[in-house]
Design brief:
There is one protein chain. This protein has 13 helices and 15 strands. It is α/β, with parallel strands linked by helices. The chain has a single domain (about 5-415), classed as Glycosidases (TIM Barrel, Alpha-Beta Barrel). It starts with 9 loop residues before the first strand and ends in a 10-residue tail after the last helix. The strands form 4 sheets. It has an 8-stranded parallel beta barrel with strand order 1-2-3-4-5-9-12-13, surrounded by 6 helices. Strands 6-10-11 form a 3-stranded mixed beta sheet, with helices on one face. The chain binds beta-D-galactopyranose. The site of beta-D-galactopyranose has 12 residues, from loops.
Length: about 425
């Protein structure tokens, strides 16, 4: 029996410190202040959902919906507010959050880096600084030393592909670059950060006799040619697919910075750095190559979310199948969700996507868990508070949480699936 056969199914919600905790000082809060025009509704993360203080009541909400897993992130800028100085009190806070999870039968899934950086690091080049893998590993080691006795599931970096593209190619996010060479550099650096942190997590856990399962959270967004008869569309979709969806996974499999990001250089710790595969999935897109470059649009013929993403649960199922067929790693859905303020789409979205997970499991694919993004409406990066992913709506003045009807759908399905031990028959 493989180790993952013994894992009770985890179902819960995901969020990230910057989007929910409130009152942070990091590269994003500086960006929100200095570039108000970059945020769709000109909002600032500010107090966010005040989850920093209200985590217990929110974990009660999750537990009441039969959730047994909570993915959240540790905020690097709290833990290491000055370079090389670890704030033990900050780690103590996260220990309390984890203890509160455990008291409620909720499995914590802990992300070490979810898009934000301490200001001191941003000032000296952010993820492009040459020593960032070392700095990240040092911070990761401090987190595991403080929390590794009560955390098993670790996520090193959230969505390296999204971060590289949004920050260095499209320039929506700090440091707002539009540079292909810097995007390439960012991909390489994030692979090095993931590798260095994985070594650190495993090392500290092993020295203490703790179990640690490590992955990064990989955003999978399949690209298909807008016109499959046009070789230019086919080629554009295939190259985007390679870079965005496959490159990082192939780097972890081979341990090398493969073209076009590198020339095959080996990165210490990268090979075999995944114990499981964290998958974030929202949508797929169509690509049309024009003289001005690749036009990327939502796939035609599907309902669209509040942020114009096509909803296709069968695509989600195919992502799970092909990830397993290609990498043979147990899968944890670290994010899947829908922006839908009126909650017209979410109940069916949950039904359809969780049924896809059930079918995948019944077909022998070891999907270990599913984290819905998100329990609460939260600060959606450059979209500010204009996107509504929550099972609970959050009133921006009172911060009162109100369940949407889909919370009931989630609760019903989670009640059936939480803790399930389907014997996983390898395909
Ligand atoms: C993901 C990201 C989350 C959240 C979500 C919803 O790409 O990891 O932080 O923003 O999208 O858009």
């Amino acid at each position: 029996m493989e180790w993952f056969d013994a894992v009770p199914f985890m179902i819960g919600c995901a969020d990230a410190a910057h989007q929910v905790e409130g009152n942070l000082v990091n590269d994003w809060t500086v960006f929100e202040e200095t570039h108000p025009e970059a945020i769709a509704d000109r909002s600032r993360s500010g107090i966010a959902c005040d989850t920093y203080h209200r985590y217990e009541e929110d974990l009660d909400r999750l537990a009441a919906l039969h959730g047994n897993a909570y993915r959240f992130s540790i905020e690097w800028s709290r833990v290491e507010p000055h370079e090389g100085v670890i704030d033990a009190k900050a780690l103590e806070h996260y220990r309390k959050v984890i203890a509160a999870c455990r008291e409620r039968g909720i499995e914590p899934i802990v992300t070490l880096h979810h898009f934000t950086l301490p200001v001191w690091l941003a000032h000296r080049g952010g993820i492009l600084a040459s020593d960032v893998p070392y700095a990240f590993a040092r911070y990761a080691a401090a987190c595991v030393a403080a929390l590794g006795d009560i955390v098993t599931w670790w996520v090193t970096v959230n969505e390296p592909n999204v971060l590289a593209v949004m920050s260095y190619l499209y320039g929506y996010w700090p440091p707002q670059e539009h540079s292909l060479p810097k995007t390439v550099h960012a991909f390489a650096q994030l692979a090095r950060m993931h590798a260095a942190a994985t070594v650190a997590v495993r090392d500290v856990a092993a020295r203490n006799g703790w179990t640690a399962h490590v992955s990064f959270a990989h955003h999978v967004r399949p690209f298909q040619p807008a016109n499959p008869m046009l070789p230019s569309d086919v080629a554009a979709a295939a190259s985007m697919d390679w870079l965005f969806n496959s490159w990082m996974l192939e780097a972890c499999r081979t341990g090398r910075l493969l073209p076009p990001i590198g020339r095959g250089e080996e990165v210490y710790g990268l090979r075999g750095s995944l114990d499981y595969l964290g998958i974030n999935h929202y949508t797929g897109e169509e690509v049309h190559l024009t003289l001005r470059g690749a036009e990327v649009k939502p796939r035609r013929g599907y309902p669209l979310t509040e942020n114009s993403l096509a909803i296709d649960p069968l695509l989600f199922e195919s992502v799970l199948i092909s990830a397993w067929d290609t990498y043979h790693l147990p899968i944890l859905v670290t994010e899947n969700g829908v922006a839908d303020r009126t909650d017209d789409l979410r109940p069916a979205f949950l039904e359809d996507h969780l049924h896809a997970v059930q079918r995948a499991r019944a077909n022998g694919i070891p999907v270990l868990g599913y984290c819905y993004w998100s329990l609460l409406d939260n600060f959606e990066w450059h979209e500010g508070y204009s996107m509504h992913f929550g099972l609970f709506a959050v009133d921006r003045t009172s911060l009162e949480r109100t369940p949407r009807p889909s919370a009931e759908t989630f609760s019903r399905i989670a009640g059936e699936m939480a803790g399930e031990r389907v014997p996983i028959v390898p395909r």
